Amino acid sequence: MFAQCRACGVPKMIGKTHAWRDGCIVDKASGVANLCVYEVYNHNTFVKEMGDNMGLPLDPIIYNASVHASQNVIDDMLKPHPILKKLAFSLPLYRLTERIICNLYKAIGAGGVDLREHSKRRRAKAIISVPFNLTQCLAITAGALQAVDGIPYSYEIVREGEPTEVDFIPSSGEAGDEEAYERLSTTELTPNQSLPGPAFTPCPKCGVPQAIGEMFSFDLRRGVVKERKGRGRVILGGVASFNALFREFERELGDPIDDITIAIEKESTKKNLADTDDIGKSWDMLELREHLALYGTGILQEMEQDGDKVTFSVANVYVPPLVAGRLVGIWENWHQREAAYDFSVDDNTVTLTVRPKA
Description:
Blueprint: H1 12-17, E1 18-21, E2 24-27, E3 33-39, H2 40-54, H3 59-78, H4 82-88, H5 94-107, E4 112-116, E5 124-129, H6 134-149, E6 153-159, E7 164-170, H7 178-183, H8 210-215, E8 216-219, E9 224-227, E10 233-238, H9 239-253, H10 258-275, H11 285-294, E11 299-306, E12 309-315, H12 320-335, E13 339-346, E14 349-356
Antiparallel strand pairs: 1-2, 2-3, 3-10, 4-5, 5-7, 6-7, 8-9, 9-10, 11-12, 12-14, 13-14
């Protein structure tokens, strides 16, 4: 149940279901960019700061976006195998399917999510421990139930604390709002495969890039993934969830959130670099290219320097302002001065120019 590769320590489940290619962490079954490595500090800082900027509680927006993203991802993983999907969601195999999904949540660092006392289309009980973000853990669990049962679920928190005990309550009808399901679909997340990405040295046993096991430790019983350097917590977060969340924020505000997101991500990136004693660290193109691709955030195609001004072109990017904010943060940490930038996105390719602020 908690099998890890003996050579690199990465959960075997990740190596069996995902591949690092095209600058992304791709689900092998569906071919979509499914995961990206993301610092939990960055995630929760983004949620807090965005809530302060919007002046309203974000939990309902986060929950709605993440429920549908979770359901979509599970459906996409099984879509190429319709017979397997039918079997996986049928009696009595659905219980095994739910255990596999919960183990996947632990493998990616979401926390300890355990479903108990669930019968098809009936109330389910969940125990959630050390979540990276409680609202999103509630949402991905509800999304899994919706995928398995085909009906929507709401929740009631029975007992708060560590762990949190939750009841998931089924509703009548088909799973979720059809308009929301279509709006938050993941069909645009298939990376361009014609672009050459960096070649990573694979683990000889599981095939995952060796650097992943060298950089991160995996505690599968608790569902916690940490950096070995700096020991900050990370999650192999769902690209579909981030993508849906950004679109929902923009829909709520009626305006793009790129500049707000870049500013928040920039500061979080600088804080993380300081925590790992990398203040003033310089980056060459090869190092930065490998960093972005290992994290599943795109392929760095060009990095042109003109004095202190740098222009980046990154392809196969599905959370563009996060990637842009990270690059601006890396530049500011590198040059130890405030930056100005120009940012654009065309066909999932980010073009970013960073220069000293006048």
